[in-house]
Amino acid sequence: MPKEPEISLAEKTFVLEALKQNLRVDGRNIHSFRDIQFSFGDDYGFVDVRLGKTRVLARISAEIIRPRPDRPFEGTFTISTEMGPMASPSFEVGRPTDLDNTLSRLLEKSIRRSTALDLESLCIVTAQRVWSLRADLHFLSHDGNLIDTACIATITALAHFRLPVVTVSGEDITIHPVTERVPVPLSLLHWPICVTFSFFGEDDDGEMVCVLDATAQEEALREGDMTVTVNKNGEVCQISKSGGVAVEAETLMKCARKAAEKVKGIDKLIASALRGDEIARNKGNLDWLKEGRSENER
Amino acid sequence: MEGLRNDGRRWNELRRIHCQLSTSSTNADGSSYIEQGFTKVLCNVTGPAEPSSRQKVKQDAATVTCEVYFAAFSGTDRIKRGRNDKKVQELQTAIQKTFASVILTHLFSRSEITISIHILSQDGGTLAACINATTLALIDAGIPLKDYVCACTSGQSTSIFDNEGSTPDPWLDVNYLEESDIPSLTVATVGETEKIVALSMENKVRIEMLEGMIAVGISGCAKVKGIMDAEVRRYGKTRLEAATGE
C-alpha cells in the first residue's frame, strides 16, 4: 500500500508551534471553516461540495423494491462510500482503510440512526412496494476533513433530491415522469451535520488546542480527534471520540457548544445554496412551477 | 418504588462488577475476565511480540492491534457477526485507538501488541466492558500503561425538562433494556483524572443534557477504577504469597 508522504521535521515543528499560538498555516482562525462551495448537476440529487481543496460528490438515486418482511411500512436508505486513488494515492480500491470504515459508520450513525430521513414516507404500497434510496459518495480530492464534507454533501443531496410522483389505483402503480408531474422533495426531519475537531496538545496557557476543519497536513499531525453531529435545533445526534490525546470534559463540552454554533451557519449556507439552485433551475418557466404547487402568490 | 430503575438500582448505582486476572494461563501473555451485570467479556493480550506482517512494523513504536469476536449467542437474538461486520470493525478501531494512546508504545519499537476480545454476553455497555477488560489484561501482561483506562456508560432517562426547568438525574451504567430505550453514552477516562480518552454516543440528545450525562459517566469511571484496582492488588498479593511460599 502506498504510504502518504511523511511530513518533514521542520515543517512539523513549524505547524505545531504556530498552532500553539493559535495560528494556522493557511491564515485561518482555528475555529473557522474553509469556504464551502456547492455546485448542483442537471439532475435532482446531484451535488458537488468543495471545502477548500477537499471535494466530494454525492448522488442520490431511487428505485422501487419490495420491502423487508419485518418492516413492511418502511423504505430503505443506504449510504455507499468508496475511496479510491482519485482522492489520495494512499487509498486503494477494494481495500478499505480505517478512515473508510470510520467514515461510513459515522455517516450511518449521523444520518440514518438519527432518523433524518423519514423512511415511512418512502412507502408506496404496504408490504408490496417501497422506494429504496441510495446515496453514492465519490471522493474526488482529499485535503482533510473528509467526514464533514461527506456529511454536508449527503444532506445537501438529500434535500435537493426529488422523488417522482407515484399514483396507485388498485393493483396498478404508475410512476409519473418529471415532465408530467412536478416531483416531490423527500421528507427530511432534520439536517444533522458533522463537525470534526482536531486536538493538538496543550498551548502555553495549558489549554487544549482544538482546531476545526483541519487540512490533510494538520490531520497527519494531530494527536486526537472528535466528531460531533448536531442539527440546527441544538440536538446532538452522535459523538465519537475514539482514542487520541485525553481531553478534559469541560473542553469537550466547549467543543460541542462550538459545533452547535457552527452548524447553524452551515445549515444556512446549505439552505441558501439550495434556494439559489431552485431559482436558477426554474428561470423562464416559473408558470410551470406555480401550477405544480398548491400555494400561490396572493 | 419511587426513583428506582427496572432492575432495582438507583440512578447513581453501578451493576455488580466481577473481574479476574490471568484467566487463561497458557495461551496469552495477559488475560482477564469481567462481568458488569450480565455483560461478560473475556480478553487476551499477546505481546509485545514480533509483528505478524511487515506492514505492521513501526520503527519508533509498538503497533497495537485489536480483534473483537462476538459470540453468536451473546445477544438476545442469535446473530453471527463476521470479521467484516461494520459494528465489529468500529469496536476494534475504537479499542485499538484508545489503547494506542495509553500504552507506552515507544518502549517496544518494531513489535506488536495484540488484544483479542471475546464478548460472551451482552447486556448493555459492551464497549465499556471491553475497555475495562483490556486494561486488566494489559496489566496482567505487564505492559506499561500511563494509567488505568476505565469506561462506564450513562443515560438520560427523559429528554424533556420537568416543570421546574431542571433535568432529572442521568442514569449510571445502563443495562440492555435502558440502552435500547433512552439515549446513552460511553465514556472512558484515564486513571482518576477527569480526562476523557474515548467518548461515544449514538442517540439524539439535547445539548443541554450532555454535560450531566458526561459528569455522571466520569463519576462511574472513578468507581470502576476503584473496583479494578482492588482486584489487581488482591491478585498481586496472592501471586506474591505463592511465590514467597507464605
Write the layout of secondary structure elements.
The complex is a heterodimer of chains A (298) and B (246).
Chain A: H1 9-20, E1 36-40, E2 46-51, E3 54-65, E4 76-82, H2 98-113, E5 123-125, E6 129-141, H3 146-160, E7 162-163, E8 166-169, E9 172-175, E10 184-185, E11 193-202, E12 208-212, H4 216-221, E13 224-230, E14 235-248, H5 249-281, H6 286-292
Parallel strand pairs in A: 4-6
Antiparallel strand pairs in A: 1-2, 2-3, 3-6, 5-6, 7-10, 8-9, 11-12, 11-13, 13-14
Helix pairs in contact in A: 2-3, 3-5
Chain B: E1 17-21, E2 30-36, E3 39-49, E4 63-70, H1 86-100, E5 112-121, H2 126-141, E6 149-155, E7 171-172, H3 176-181, E8 184-190, E9 195-201, E10 205-206, H4 207-244
Parallel strand pairs in B: 4-5
Antiparallel strand pairs in B: 1-2, 2-3, 3-5, 6-7, 6-8, 8-9
Keywords (chain A): Cytoplasm, Exosome, Nucleus, RNA-binding, rRNA processing
Protein name (chain A): Exosome complex component RRP45
Pfam families (chain A): RNase_PH, RNase_PH_C
